[in-house]
Amino acid sequence: MGIMVKTVKEMDSMEDLEETIVQTRNAWMVCRMATPAFYLGVVVNRASTLGNIRLVVGKYLDKVRQLLV
Hints:
Layout lengths: L1 H9 L8 E5 L3 E9 L2 E8 L4 H19 L1
Antiparallel strand pairs: 1-2, 2-3
C-alpha cells in the first residue's frame, strides 16, 4: 500500500488514496483508508463479487475508525 500511496501523492491532481482494488487470478483485495495512517484491507477468493466485498468493507469501516481514534 505504501508504494501505491506514494505514487498517487506524486500526481498533482490526486489527494489521499481512499480505495484500492487489486484483482489476481484467484483473489480480490480491497483496501480502504480508515484514517490517513491506517487502511482496512480484505482479501477474498474470486467466488465473491466485488460489489459484495465493497459493501462488507464499507459496513465495518466506521467501526474500525472509531476504534482507531
